[in-house]
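Researcher: Go.
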Amino acid sequence: MAISENDKRWLKDYLTGERPPFEPIYEAVSEQVLLLIFTARALYKNQAYSAWFDEQERLLTALNEDRDNIISLFPKHYFKSALEFIQNEPDGAALHFMKQIHRGYDKGMSSMQVWGKMSHPDQSKRALINREKELNYIQHEFSEILTSGGIKCLPIPSEARLGYSHQDLSMAFSRAPLICERLNSFFDITHPDMLCEAIYTLMYWYRENDIELPSWLEPLSHIRTWIKLEPRNSRHLLSDIRQFLDDNLANFAANVPQSINERELELFVEHVDCAYANHIYYWISQVTRLFSHDFQNRYVWRFKTVDESGVDNLFGDEHACQIKISRADLLELINKNGIADAAHVLAESLSAFYVESLDDTENGEMPRLEKEREGSSSNAMGYSNHSSVVSSTAVTYLDHFIDWYERNKVLFVIPDTKRAEKANIASWLVGLECYDLKLGVPSKEKTRLKDVLPALSRKYANSTHKSGTSEISINRYYLRVKKIIENDVASLVEKQKANNKFYPFNGANFAIKPFWGSS
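Model: Structure:
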């Protein structure tokens, strides 16, 4: 069935990039990043906690200087993703030890108490790192780093932290420029690139399923789609599509709505949305790379097919699939609004577990395999990372977070004033940079604002006004940020947490969530 006239107009805008999917996500993530950074600076302004931040900066600097020694502790067979983080992230090696100190702070322990536990690790745990070399480093080099400057600081109380973790506050204090730089890499996700990926993957899907290409894709039928596309690593596969769109986008956007049907439109939009979602999800992972990720719900689904010796299950049926989860995990998922995402994880795990039996089904009867009787769990090797769940539900997670943000946003709600001005994110970042320069965060090298205004005006010419940002505007952005940090940030975070009681974020694994939800 042909699409409606309204859909035709919408699709034309969609193709040309006038209506990109997930448009509010940059603002939604930026708000959480800025609230965290502002909170760290507000705490630093408090004399009771400023020494703690200075101490964390000292420890981080010292560990980074010993980076090569730390990296040498890790064998080549260590977890690939963890090894990549330790070797390639500027603070990755330092955070291997610092995150353990920060977890201890979150529990109310001093750094030396945590050091004591690190010096006597649980021997029952599988050692994936050279235990002897690590213990030797902890007991000597790490001990020296901890004590050389005099350890004086106690953890920051939870109520003062507004629920943020110590690691997040420490990174927001020390690495704000890097985090903000990664925040703005969102604009590297361009509509032409996403459109190319979507068209390629859609053509690949049609051909893999032996379905003739629809008429609106005929102009591209000469382009080969001989290998599955891997996002961020397959630009060479898209060059022909990109050239076609560069030369013909206007005509393509005008012609497609005239020939596409409802089912084809649904498939196309799904592929475009997935292309955007995969890149945006990766972008979020880069923005949050230095933050703690210990706030995921820890739950395990267990399942098995009951055999003849176990018919005492709920169904009284020897062929039933029996699924179990601990009551404590279930209650936590309910409390944190995480049931829906946990159900996605269960569905993917069950699919992987039973796919072999499904392949062996004959005459409508499903034979049971030995592994079904033995059972398995959602964190079993082979599908414990749920990578396909993340990929297939990234769209859902982004939609959920955007919906949460629209109901709970606090920083970008501008009250009506005589001077109504939309405070875009670039203006907040300009004001933050001014604030840090004037305060000397974290370097303690203070700069007079008037000395940097001309340079900042040129630096942010492309992000606010094409003609450049006036020094008057930059000074206004600085004063706005200063007011938030010194007077308003605590009330904004508490207001968002209060709103969250009525419109809660999703607390399951892989869900995007506010940073204050981590502690």
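Model: The CA atoms of residues 193 and 242 lie 8 Å apart.
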